[in-house]
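retry 2 of 3: previous attempt timed out while embedding zinc ion. Reduced batch size to 1 and resubmitted. Inputs unchanged:
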Amino acid sequence: MPEVNRAAATSVVASHVVTGDEAGTVWTPGEVVWADGVIQYVGPPARGPVGRRIEMGEGVVFPGFVNGHGHAAMSLLRGFADDSRLMPWLTEHIWPIENRLTPEDVEVGTLLAAAEMLHAGVVGFADMYYFPGAVVRAAETSGLRAMVGRGLAGGAGAQAAVEEAVALAAELAGRGGRVAGWLAPHAPYTVEPPLAAMIAEAAQRHGLAIHIHLAESEEEGQQVRDRAGVSPIGWADEVGLLTGRTVVAHGVYLTEPDIARLARSGAAVIHCPTSNLKLGNGVAPVIALERAGVTVGLGTDGPASTNRLDPFQEMRLAAWLQKSATGDPAAFSARDALRLATRGSARALGWDSGVLAVGHWADLAVASWWAPHVVPHADPLSTLVYATTPGDVRYTVVGGQVVVDDGVITTFDEGAVLRESMNRARALTPS
Ligand SMILES: [Zn+2]
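retry 2 succeeded.
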């Protein structure tokens, strides 16, 4: 790394570096060096001069996870109204509380989620929620990357909400930070065709990405077919919401023509296995989607329907569900699951993270592999995906900034956020 200012560079040396590249390269031991927010070196330990070197010993450096779908502030509603079906869960439990949320609630809830994600090695998240300005403030405070959009649904004020989303995206693009805006129509059952057309037109005119829940439940599919005579994917395609920059959350109930439409449009799908299982919504056809050329990423969905923002849990479930659905344990490997959580989600969001390679964003995490549940390290990919937990993560680095340093969040007061979250959740939810 001859042209790098070595005093400004940071490096980590560990017994394992899982690069997450297409060839599945693993260095044992390995070193990763970054400066100016970009990876400068990946390979065997070179131990050249740097401003700071982290010596991890028995541990793993890996590409930071990208959480491709969620509603971060719903962490305040964690554990409330569990064990219910999607529609009654939304209409009887979640929406009445959400009507009372303030921007301050959303900012604190998003910081709570950010703390949880940072401790789990997440470097960025995709969001859809209310009060996007509050989500932006929390994301910027946390140091995480984020795609932020107000959930757009029908009713009075929908047009103004679209205009506000466009203005926020333009403002964030002008700022050039780690947080960007997008258009987030909620779902086919909450977005009427005129609003869908307005969003599609705005996305095209301003070059914005779209984030939408599609083909999540059987009930949704039935509703859309009864109303529009097509599947949710078909509906989205016909109203112009399926573009090369569309990120579809869930994609569980898909026909072969749906998968072909997704592939043709260039839209990506974010698989949310925990949420799908918990709400009894079935198994997304991940293998068929990838085989058709669709980019598939991984997401937690909101903490109210997932309870934990844990990419390790999502990777394990993604692998196990595909093995179970196909009856073939070789059909979907640890490496496949890691790809979804890193490169897959990053590609879906248009980010340059998800792989440890020279020139890419320095978005990475480091976990200790010195604990009973991760020793020995017979196969590093297996250990990372099937055995590692958020509690093992010691460092999370976003754009070269060490945001979790030896287990401590450096960007905000985690204890204060926990206390404030408890107070606000108590006030919001009936006991
Ligand atoms: Zn969702």
